[in-house]
Write a sequence for this structure.
């Protein structure tokens, strides 16, 4: 938050503000800037919203969390570059999560900009907006019970549902995109070559955006890649199930993610501009690290399945960033979803199977 305040002050104090004057804006050269937009109460700290100059006006890649302080930081960052929110011509969203798509509606209102997203994530936005919150609570309690969650974990969900005190979920008011990002195609941006690369895994419709132009500092490699949450320098993104009540498709998000990673590695971009942390080079090395990390993790889980375990029991035994007892309630749900995504992969690989006749279903190694 203090960064936002500093930036606002810097923007007001200097008649012709330069990016150097405000540490929350980075000039990446060649008509590309990064603006740090804070995520309130989140250890990730901020979303890097990228600004791409086009012949028709600036285009944003992601917008940031829907919060007044985040909005101020975005507006101040654009001010540092010499732009106003009203100038924004279009918004390209890497995926539907609220730290990326949260402010899109407000940007569209202020500027008339179009909003583009991959169809699979637009489907999630539309579904979330139209769902009655109760449907979500019923789905979550049913899913957790089926995953082997103990009664004391599921009971608060049922109690909240029964009392009608249903917390508003982020994303409930998210803007419905008005353009579709088509995988493999160039986005219609005047004077720029920005190609959409579909990278499902973190969400079903996650895209990376490949700027097929020479690197402004002539770094070796193929252009620059806006990688969203797909490829981050120091974090392995959360891969859970594609949570979708009423969807009966058996998806394999971790398999999708690993395939998408290899695809990005083969692009060999000169530089990666991710949506969190910081820009980095040598994408193939980072891809290898992540592939090895997931392979090790899958093998570790396969060993744990020497005894049959439900997804909940597996989550309790997996390695997290803190002991299971200290993982907060909501994060446990995310952890179970991650355990299930790993189980799906092991089953697909023929390394595990559901034990017939178990309820909740337990899995064992093969
Ligand atoms: Zn995300
Ligand atoms: Zn994110």
């Amino acid at each position: 938050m203090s960064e936002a305040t500093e930036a606002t002050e810097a923007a007001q104090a200097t008649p012709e503000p330069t990016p150097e004057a405000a540490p929350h804006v980075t000039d990446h050269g060649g008509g590309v800037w990064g603006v740090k937009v804070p995520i309130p109460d989140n250890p990730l700290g901020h979303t890097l919203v990228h600004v791409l100059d086009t012949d028709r006006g600036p285009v944003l890649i992601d917008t940031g969390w829907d919060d007044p302080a985040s909005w101020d930081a975005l507006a101040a960052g654009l001010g540092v570059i010499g732009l106003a929110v009203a100038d924004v011509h279009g918004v390209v969203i890497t995926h539907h999560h609220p730290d990326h798509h949260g402010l899109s509606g407000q940007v569209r209102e202020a500027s008339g900009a179009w909003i583009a997203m991959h169809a699979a994530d637009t489907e999630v936005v539309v579904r979330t907006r139209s769902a009655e919150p109760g449907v979500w609570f019923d789905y979550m309690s049913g899913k957790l019970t089926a995953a082997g969650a103990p009664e004391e974990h599921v009971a608060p969900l049922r109690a909240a549902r029964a009392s009608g005190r249903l917390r508003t979920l982020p994303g409930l008011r998210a803007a419905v995109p008005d353009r579709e990002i088509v995988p493999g195609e160039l986005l219609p941006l005047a004077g720029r070559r920005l190609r959409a690369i579909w990278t499902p895994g973190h969400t079903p419709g996650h895209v990376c955006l490949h700027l097929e132009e020479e690197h402004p500092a002539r770094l070796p490699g193929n252009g620059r890649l806006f990688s969203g949450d797909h490829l981050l320098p120091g974090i392995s993104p959360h891969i859970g199930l594609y949570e979708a009540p009423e969807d009966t498709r058996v998806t394999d998000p971790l398999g999708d993610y690993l395939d998408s990673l290899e695809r990005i590695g083969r692009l060999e971009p000169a530089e990666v501009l991710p949506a969190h942390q910081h820009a980095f080079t040598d994408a193939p090395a980072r891809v290898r690290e992540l592939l090895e990390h997931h392979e090790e993790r899958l093998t570790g889980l396969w060993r744990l399945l020497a005894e049959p375990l439900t997804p909940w029991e597996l989550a309790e035994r997996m390695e997290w960033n803190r002991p299971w007892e200290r993982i907060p309630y909501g994060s446990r749900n995310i952890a179970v979803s991650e355990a299930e995504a790993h189980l799906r992969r092991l089953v697909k690989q023929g390394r595990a199977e559901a034990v017939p006749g178990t309820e909740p279903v337990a899995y064992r190694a093969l």
Q: What stands out?
A: The longest strand covers residues 32-38. Confidence is low (pLDDT under 50) at residues 1-22. Residues 2-123+171-288 form a domain with the Metallo-beta-lactamase; Chain A fold (CATH 3.60.15.10).
